[in-house]
Write a structure and sequence with these properties.
Blueprint: E1 3-6, H1 8-16, H2 18-33, E2 42-44, E3 51-55, E4 58-64, E5 68-76
Parallel strand pairs: 1-5
Antiparallel strand pairs: 2-3, 3-4, 4-5
C-alpha cells in the first residue's frame, strides 16, 4: 500500500465538500491499495505531470510515485481543471 499525502488545497476542498468526503477518501484509499481496482476511473492529464481520479461528479487531481500518492486538488467536474 502506498501512502497518501494531501496538499493544503486538497484538505480544504475535502472539508468544503464534507458530504462527499467519505466517498472520495474511500476511492483514494482503494486506488492506493490496488491501482487496477480504479483503472477505468483514472486518466493521465494532458500537458501536466498529473492524473485524475473520477469519483461521481468530483475529480481528484494527483501525482504518484512508487510509494506515495500526493493529492493536489479535489473539486466538482466543471471547475477543477482551471
Amino acid at each position: 500500500m502506498r501512502s497518501v499525502l494531501y496538499t493544503r488545497t486538497a484538505a480544504t476542498a475535502l472539508r468544503k465538500h464534507a458530504n462527499r468526503a467519505k466517498l472520495i477518501r474511500t476511492k483514494i484509499t482503494q486506488y492506493a491499495d490496488d491501482p487496477s481496482s480504479q483503472a477505468n476511473n483514472v486518466k493521465t492529464l494532458a500537458g501536466v505531470d498529473a492524473k485524475r481520479l473520477r469519483v461521481g461528479d468530483f475529480r481528484v487531481i494527483f501525482t504518484e510515485t512508487a510509494d506515495t500518492i500526493t493529492i493536489l486538488d479535489i473539486g466538482p467536474r466543471g471547475g477543477i481543471y482551471e
